[in-house]
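We close this part of the discussion by returning to an individual protein. Part of our work consisted of pairing the sequence of a single chain with a tokenised description of its backbone. What the numbers capture is local backbone geometry rather than side-chain detail. The amino acid sequence and the backbone structure tokens for this protein are reproduced below.
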Amino acid sequence: MDKLTRKFQVVITETLKLRVDVEAGSKDEAEQIVADGWRNSQYILDSENFTGVEFEASEE
């Protein structure tokens, strides 16, 4: 490695979003219903749901 260069780690964070309409008695219950559905692969997010990307570099 050249003396003028340094090593960095770069974290890539992609954001995927999907709006799900659900009937529930409360906000907490709605979130739980959708979370359970997501865990059971009822909702699969892919490149169609891509909304952004962030890059964060830190020196090793």
User: Anything to note?
Assistant: Residues 27-39 form the longest helix (13 residues). Residues 8 and 60 are 5 Å apart (CA to CA). The chain has one domain: 8-59. The chain is about 20% helix and 30% strand.
